[in-house]
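Hi R.,

Here's the chain you asked about this morning:
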Amino acid sequence: MNRIGICVLLLVTWGGLLWAQQAQEERISVSQEVDWQGGVLILEVAMAMEANEFDPSSRFDAEREIERLLPGLFMSSVVEIPFDSYRTVGARLKEDQMLFQRLERTAVSSATKNFSRVRRDLQEIQIQYLFPFYGEGGFAVPLILHSRPHPVERKLGFVPSRNFTGLVIYARGELPAHGKDIRQQVRPALFPTLYDEQMNPVLTAQMCDPAYLKRWGMVAYSDSEGSSALLERIGAAPLRTVARGVFGINATDLLLPDEAVDRLVVREANREMLSQGRVLIVIEPAED
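And here is the predicted structure, written out as tokens:
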């Protein structure tokens, strides 16, 4: 076979492979949900199947094909999650190619298959995967790069206070947006910043102990503080306060009353509590 014939054959072969892969991916649909209260990314993947080809082996092949595509499906879903006040996870990953690879490898290895089922008409297989934010294999863990926390700034002078077991911030509804002539609802993020009313940082991700960040993140989000699961985090005697405003391109950061901030940072025990991420932000219930 001459050289031109070989080139034509290779082009036809590669074209056929790309067409086959595209045809396979067109049979797949993906839906996602970020559960901020549960700290988990929920990914539901469905693959269409011909009814007359269904048998146990075809289901196995479909599941294996979905698992092959899962790293790409996960990365496509995670990139739009707010990272901080001005970046998404995708924007953060663009800054560090090695971080992209670590995140992909860590998250997919820890994914939990919540269910796998075939639709009654045998036209589709549906699989739901859960990707935890934190804990062993959590996808936010590779994003935590510091090894020692920066100190939470100390308040000098005397302020009447006591030791608190946590911090609860009520941030329901629309709040004044700092630097904007609008009101906005706070938007959950992996690493928000807390400020006082003069925009001095009270708590940032770099001020948090990385061991606690990897354990449960910088803050928890919930539509109430009544969950028993939150008790370990905020304890029985937290300081409760109401956010004064939101800040950031993504409206993720909160402004706290100066009085509450002073009561927190005047005591070493409270500064340590903040560095452990013992913070709950109470937000609006998720829409059904």
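One quick note: The longest strand covers residues 40-48.

Cheers,
M.
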